[in-house]
Amino acid sequence: MDDAWSPLLAARTCHQHLVTEEEFATSLATLRADQRHKPNLMKALDRHGG
């Protein structure tokens, strides 16, 4: 299951290096809003810092 989070973590790292964390946060907020009806996904995002 942890492998599924690799792209998310890699994207976050890229945004940190590019100093575009705000854009990443906006994208993540949009994902959360669109998928809010999936409580397990929300819990997993919380666990993985997403």
Describe what this molecule looks like in 3D.
It is a single chain. By secondary structure, the chain is mainly α. The model has no long low-confidence stretch (mean pLDDT 88).
- Specify Rg, calculated over alpha carbons: 11 Å
Morphology call: flat
Strand elements, count: 0
Q: What is the helix/strand order?
A: HHH
pLDDT averaged over residues: 88
Report the sheet with the most strands, covering strand number, pairing sense and barrel closure.
none
Q: Residue share in helices? A: over 70%
Show unreliable segments: none
Q: What is the overall number of helices?
A: 3
Task: Summarize it.
The chain has 50 residues and is an all-alpha fold.
Observed structural traits:
50 residues; mainly alpha; 3 helices; flat
Layout: helices, strands, pairs:
Blueprint: H1 6-17, H2 21-34, H3 39-47
Helix pairs in contact: 1-2
